[in-house]
Give the backbone structure.
Amino acid sequence: MADVPAHAIQRRRLLDAMLTGLGAVALTAVVGAVLLMVGGHDPWMAATAMIRGSFGSGRTFVSITLVRSIPLILTGLAVAFAFRAGVWNIGAEGQLYAGAVAAVWMGLAGSGLPAWLLLPLVVLSALVAGAAWALVPTLMRLKLGVGEVITTILMNFVGIYVAGYMVHGPLQEARGVFPQTDPIAEAARLPMLLPGTRLHWGFGIAVLLVFALTVILRYSRFGFQLRAVGASPEAAAVSGRIDTGRVLLVSFLGSGAIAGLAGGVEVSGLTHALYEDLSPGWGYTAIAVALLAGLNPVGVVITGILFGALQAGAGAMQRDAGIPAAWVGVVEALVILAVLAIDKVRKMGAIVREDAG
Amino acid sequence: MSRILARLTGIERRFGPVVALNGADLELRGGEVHGVLGANGAGKSTLLNILGGMLRPDAGRVEIDGEEVALTSPRDAWACGIGLVHQHFTLVPTLTVLENLALGSRGPAAAPRTVRAQAERIMERTGLHIPLHPRVESLGVGDRQRIEILKALLRDPRVLVLDEPTAVLTPEEIEGLFGLLRDLAGEGRAVALVVHKIDEVMDVADRVTVLRSGRTVLSAGPAERSTGDFVRAMVGDDAVDPIALGLGEATEDVGEGPREPGEETGGSLAGSETRTVARVEAVTVEDARGPRVRDVTLEVAAGEVLGIAGVEGNGQRELALVLAGRMPVSRGSVRLPDAVGFISQDRSSEGLIADFDLRENVALALQRKAEYRRGPWLRWDRLEEAAETIRSRYDVTAPSIRTAAGSLSGGNQQRVVVGRELAMASQLLVAENPTRGLDIAASAFVHEELRRLVSQGVGVVLLSTDLDEILALSDRIFAIARGSLVEVAKEEWSREGVGAYMLGGTAEHG
């Protein structure tokens, strides 16, 4: 069984995933504190600044942490959905940029259309563009048997540079000064979810999607087939007579569409324009978000908010404690290492318990 | 009396909520072949795995040469001279046979030349022939089994432990293996083996230990007790007549005795118009290695059992997949009904998903049926009901239908697969070695179920390496050799007769 990567990264039950997650956070706190001290910083100050900057007040939490978590939750869902089907989509970053470019283009080209028409078009174009970005790796996997890990990673670079080209060229603002697009039409912008905050409807979309994916995976025939293909393609094909190619196609494109949606939601809900460095690597962090959540959609909300808090707190840490925001990258890496370590230890524990009775 | 090489007393072992062993004893003497019998889930594999150092007991003593030892790993067991041949294959598919053989050795002993010389010497002595250079992934299960045995013999163990070594071997190979085991015992070694067919055990063993529900209930020489005593010890005291189970002492008179049930179905067919449920015409299947199935034409009638006998690797695997609608053909036409049940011989990778629970494994096949769906949704209420029915009807030992399939014993897994596929097969069932790895009671039950299915007008294609099974159940018998199918005439229906057809093709094969 060891030859099937699907078994290496197994889905975990939500409670189990949460226990691992809490342990990982605690372990990260301890190791991070030591590293900060070695770096000549005061870990206590760093922690208080970080918590103030992410959970300090209801307003901070909603307007900063939750807003930052939206693209992480969406890309995290994209990754979790693909991984559950045994599709190793590492390309959420590129798919996100494709979605952002398409959404902005639609938001600019469609100015003059009413919101009830334009907004759905913006969201739809982000979905389609994300799926289209995943189409090349999908076809290479299905028709040529080329592993998707490499192709999706490579498509990330293409996506990032296409977005860069767009803001320098065809989609650059009318003034032609900065590498960014003009703001999209008012009618193309997602409305606020909570008036008086910066929390836009992207969060609502993310929560609805979590609900939809949970129901699909648990109760629909397709969701069952997807889980079966992810757990054992041979058994799915022979015992279930499941068309594994079709399941791979749908889950891969679906994953791309969700990642594209993340990009579309970001420009439509928050930035209202496309910049060169729109994403600080959400599509990669998404892998950690999904894994920490045990590939469970509901868990992705929790881990997405956690990573959102880390990124929100990074700014405050730099401002108030004078600690470079790059430390957050270290913390994120520590979280992943801690998850893997705790998982491993718990598995070994289970084996030892099993052995000892 | 010869020396006791290994003794296990009062062994207990649980797997989570499942009690596998609960006071099992086993005593292995130098110079004896020791058969271990027991129903599915009786704890045979667990006991042998404890002796082989794969599992640790919760309680009980393990003594080697009269000294208590703690075997915490296979390495410990090897150091004590215990060699375990696994029920499940532990070979690396991408390595060659020779490389696999060298895997367990270190230093100069692992040099290809040394391993090859040693392997060839053992093959010479034992008649256990395997090509050394192909990759394991290109070989069939029969060959893989032989490699496992050879691998164990390479280390010259004093106690050789084999878990179901005969399940995938042909009759000739089984005879050869038994001869070899006796020779090995003759050299002063102890040989312990699990074999499901009681006749085989009686044939080869000097002593037999019977386990029931994790406990040793009988240990005796085959001559000291009747076959019935052993069977009763296995299945419990609720007086099971071995003849009723279809066991009989029917090794010689196969041509007559076990035909009874088949005649029933044949009789019911004779009267009525036979309806064809599946037809393949001039079917050829080719892959990179060349043609696997050559120009096969076959019709399966409703209510018949069509037996296909063949030596592993002669195309029956591909033919089974074609008949089950799981493999496209290179040439020819295939007409199959919608409702085909398929019992795959590869239970662990094709039949079940280890991470899925029983409910989900049952759903894996049943999700194809309209009655378990509502629009795009699965009807989990009905699926759970079906899973419960299979669990109780097929007597699957599992705490609940939420138990992961991977945590069940092989026999219980097979019950789940058989139950599920019989539920799928309203017109055609294709069964590949359906009783492989099952004990006699469970095998008899599966045969009973197949007959019930046939009496309901389902056509059954039975592909088996077990000739007794083919002879006992079939209405028509075909032999497959090098991809070609030949019908075996009724007057040649015997182990020897069918065996000759099976070998007909392979003998000339280079």
User: Anything to note?
Assistant: The interface with chain B takes residues 1, 3, 7, 10, 219-222, 224-225, 227-228, 231-232, 234-241, 354-357 of chain A (CB under 8 Å). Chain A has a mean pLDDT of 89.
